[in-house]
Amino acid sequence: MILIKNLSYLIDKDLKVYENCDVLIKKEEDGIKKIVGKNLIEKENLNKSDLKIIDGKNKAGMPGLVNTHTHIPMTLLRGIADDMRLEEWLREKIWPNEAKLTKEDVYYGSLLGCLEMLRFGVTIFNDMYFFAEKVAEATKEIGLRGVISFPIIDVGTPECENRDKLIRMAENFIKKYKEDKLIKPAIAPHAPYTCSEETYKECKEIADNYGTLLHTHLSETRYEVVEMENKIGLRPIEYLEKIGVLDNNVIAAHCVWVTKEEVRKLAKHKVKVSHCPISNMKLASGGVMPLIEMLNDGVEITIGTDGVASNNNLDMLEEIKVCSILHKAHRWDATVGDIDTVLKMAFNSDALGIENNDIVLIDLTAPHLRPIHNIKSNIVYSANGNDVDTVIANGEVLMENKRFKCIDEKFLDKLYEKVDKIKEKFSC
Ligand SMILES: C[C@H]1O[C@@H](n2cnc3c(O)ncnc32)[C@H](O)[C@@H]1O
Ligand SMILES: [Zn+2]
């Protein structure tokens, strides 16, 4: 059992704030149980020798951050191609370099990505990358929880060039992990411009049969929308609706270029949207995701960083601040993207079908986090990922006082050496 004693502030999933409390975390057969109150040792009659005690003084606790769209192994491609728009970035830089990746490279890139997320308080994530088994393996080793989706592209991926075979591999991947405690497998047709109607339909059938999510990029750029309108006379969301893919098991990343009518379609089919403001701005995807219209129509919106090659980090605290201020600037309205709205999106793991029972502690002993008029304000507008001090995920202390507990830290040097070596095979 873990006891956080004298926690200065606790923000719960419903964004209620408690002050000066203890939090007891018990890992039981049927899940994680949490008790919040004062003087829990006495009240719950706890034996100190059964407890891992964490000092909560000058710390703020909150649920684990949830990154709902990323490509974790792309940590390997950090900084390889900046200041380019999506289409050229993908075709000229990212895909040619990804073609050189082996499954071992993806494993090390995933470890690096998981440690980066952990360092920044992200405990649950939704990934889409080649060699998904290696992403799953690294995730389990670090102890995070993730929806790991197996990507499909019609022309093939670095893992396999044959689409039919890829679909069978995706199904086997789902079978292998479907009972796993930390991993929820899923399938990911990459985007409407890389996957045919047949591919989307087959992926949807697999997602339905196995009860998994279908993760896809959707309406990310104006180019994507115009290209589709020219080819088939439909916008990407209209097209996916027409072929029967839109559903409540779909999680769609980006959804920037979306009309009001399409927002209604997303809401009608209960599609979950992963909003990736930094990646959209950096890749100059143009436009801004219609947050207000989506919220007004009841679309479930979550937040993602996208991959490190378009962000260029996995700092979800940075992402929520940018999300908030982007929409204020865009709408000339300071009330838009308010503190509670962005925090709710950042803690939302329900969209992934995972319960967020994790706790992240922020160290408040830093000049930029004092004084504290409103702890939620300091977290959204003043903090960043480096302020994360301790992470308890799935009932385990994975990081304490900014030190990784899930690995021997001596391994970090070896990991950095490995990724430096992998770096040599890429060309900028
Ligand atoms: C899984 C593949 O998806 C690629 N990717 C990474 N970021 C984006 C994005 O913003 N839009 C479309 N595709 C993206 C990644 O490089 C892999 O090739
Ligand atoms: Zn992406």
Describe the model.
The chain is α/β, with parallel strands linked by helices. 37% of the residues lie in helices and 24% in strands. Strands 1, 2, 3, 4, 5, 14, 15, 16 and 17 form a nine-stranded mixed beta sheet that branches. The protein has a four-stranded parallel beta sheet with strand order 6-7-8-9. Strands 10-11-12-13 form a four-stranded parallel beta sheet. The protein is globular and about 70 Å long. The model has no long low-confidence stretch (mean pLDDT 98).
The distinct bound ligands, ions and cofactors come out as: the ligand C[C@H]1O[C@@H](n2cnc3c(O)ncnc32)[C@H](O)[C@@H]1O, zinc ion
Number of domains: 2
CATH class of the largest domain: Alpha Beta
Regions with little confidence, pLDDT below 50 for 5+ residues:
none
* Dominant shape: globular
- Strand percentage: 15-25%
- What value does the average pLDDT take? 98
| Distance N to C terminus | 49 Å
Assign a percent range to the helix content. Answer: 25-40%
For the secondary structure, the number of strands is 17
